[in-house]
Fold this sequence. Notes:
Layout: H1 5-10, H2 17-21, H3 24-32, E1 35-39, H4 61-69, E2 74-79, H5 84-91, E3 98-101, E4 106-108, E5 114-116, H6 123-136, E6 143-146, E7 149-153, H7 159-179, E8 182-187, E9 190-195, H8 200-209, E10 216-221, H9 227-232, E11 238-242, E12 253-255, H10 259-270
Parallel strand pairs: 1-2, 1-10, 2-3, 10-11, 11-12
Antiparallel strand pairs: 3-4, 4-5, 6-7, 7-9, 8-9
Helix pairs in contact: 4-10, 6-7
Amino acid sequence: MEQTLSSAIATSSQGTWQAMQAHRPLWARLAATPRTLLLDYDGTLAPFVPQGMRAPPYPGVPDLVRRLMRRPDTHVVLVSGRPAELVASLMGLDPAPEIWGCHGLEHLNARGELTRLPLAPGLQEGLDDAEAWAEARRHAGYLEHKPGCLAMHVRGLPRAKADFLLTDTAAAWQEIAARAPLELHAFDGGLELRPRGVHKGHAVATMRKDASPERVFLYLGDDKTDEDAFQALGPRDVAVLVRGEHRPTVAAWWLRPPAELLAFLQALLDLPEGINKGESP
């Protein structure tokens, strides 16, 4: 019986970059099939920065992504919690790749056309209530506004201040989410209200169902919000945690950025170039 990627990976040693490099079944399959490369942005392609600052990608990342986009056997897609057009601006690629933004609420296609899922009735009112609460509590300076979402950032704050903001916000926003079509989610550095059922896994599942079963999906991400995407992958797909320190995850592989991330992207470029055979990604 043919061994799937997931079962083969499960037997590897710790899932490190060193183990990944030596895993011949993985690279043989990647070389033999068309690929969709799904890339988270913050914490994966770019380092974390304090809230409100623009986070440029790691040096070398845009060039590697640009070169991968030119391959007929590789479909590159960015998947981010940020707005899609902002991610396109930060990456600085022309043409921009396909991008799913705001955890899958937005889709920017390869022609530059932006679409958004419709917001459920009462959702915007819930976000307005959450913002009004933050302003009344003098927390408004830590907010990030996105279409259909509202985030409270604490990255870079002193531990005591961050803990207070998270505790204070979680109690109030959970109550708001209970009466609006919203969900409260923790991420690495804050809390976020977003539409119920909207997450990065939705974006991955949408692309997966339209793709050939032979196509291998690779998803690289760092945050808790990327776990939904990891879980939406098929048994023959590849989930990669990109993070300086390991954490509990369903991903089988682990890369430390930026050096191992750059090495992995280069390794994909070094694969023999295949022909897409006209298959839709």
